[in-house]
Amino acid sequence: MERNTIKEITSILSNYLQGKEKAIELTLITFFSKGHLLIEDLPGLGKTTLAIGIAKVLGLDYGRVQATSDLLPSDIIGVSVFNKEKSQFEFKPGPIFNNILLVDEINRATPKTQSALLEAMGEKQVTVDGTTYKLPEPFFVIATQNPSEQYGTFPLPESQLDRFLMKISIGYPSKEAEKEIIKGGSKREELYSLKPFITKEQILKIREEIQKVYVSDKMADYILDIVWATRESKYLESGLSTRGTLALVNSAKTNAFFEGRDFIIPEDIKKLYPYVITHRVIFKPEFESQKQEIIKWIVESVPIPL
């Protein structure tokens, strides 16, 4: 899969998500990096349409959960039901047993229900009544959340945020794109007729190829310098975790692969760090309102390897 193929997929989905090419590209990078995606935005900006489109164009199974305050972990994972005929319990899998799971408005679920996703996202498996069940491969969670100031939301704990490779916003469409939406109406129903662009076998092969992208000693040192700059920053309570470091590396590898390279360069890091780092670090309270500016300053202060 070369850069042209990604452009074709982005172009196809752009017909249904006008003006959202950046969000589509970041979603694909997250998916092929074997990560999960958190989208923070107001309702009605195309989050569900994006998830459906990605599932259809990749030819993968798709499930959706609408998070509410009374949502239970079993509503996501599944439940054991007693079979009278067999005199034994049988596991009835929940929507998490799909290749792509959309958890809509995840921060409206209680912390107990949110935590039900931790094992699934980290280990690609779930445990019910002492029995472990493997999730399908590939497995990709797209979670959406409303801004924290919205009524009736529960902030995601740091351990949950760290499971998401990227956090992005879709944002409002441009006036030109919204004009086309007004004239043409919603195209979500048309998404269901989309034919897969690649096969599941191709997806798994691409993921293997991405892992082979070369990381030089200079690039490894550059990434570590950025990581340690977050850990030692006077603006942060805690810096990037080891999981966050690997997320930065993996996403850079995928971006390099999409651009036709078999090695990463500083531009890969500079393109992706706002979406990979910012939600994973903990800011001191007095700097909460300057998150993006602080992370940019930290990264830009690290010398680029020659």
From TrEMBL:
<keyword id="KW-0067">ATP-binding</keyword>
<dbReference type="GO" id="GO:0016887">
    <property type="term" value="F:ATP hydrolysis activity"/>
</dbReference>
<comment type="similarity">
    <text>Belongs to the MoxR family.</text>
</comment>
<dbReference type="GO" id="GO:0005524">
    <property type="term" value="F:ATP binding"/>
</dbReference>
<dbReference type="InterPro" id="IPR041628">
    <property type="entry name" value="ChlI/MoxR_AAA_lid"/>
</dbReference>
<keyword id="KW-0547">Nucleotide-binding</keyword>
<dbReference type="Pfam" id="PF17863">
    <property type="entry name" value="AAA_lid_2"/>
</dbReference>
<feature type="domain" description="ATPase AAA-3">
    <location>
        <begin position="36"/>
        <end position="166"/>
    </location>
</feature>
<dbReference type="InterPro" id="IPR027417">
    <property type="entry name" value="P-loop_NTPase"/>
</dbReference>
<dbReference type="Pfam" id="PF07726">
    <property type="entry name" value="AAA_3"/>
</dbReference>
<protein>
    <submittedName>
        <fullName>MoxR family ATPase</fullName>
    </submittedName>
</protein>
<dbReference type="InterPro" id="IPR011703">
    <property type="entry name" value="ATPase_AAA-3"/>
</dbReference>
<feature type="domain" description="ChlI/MoxR AAA lid">
    <location>
        <begin position="229"/>
        <end position="295"/>
    </location>
</feature>
<dbReference type="InterPro" id="IPR050764">
    <property type="entry name" value="CbbQ/NirQ/NorQ/GpvN"/>
</dbReference>
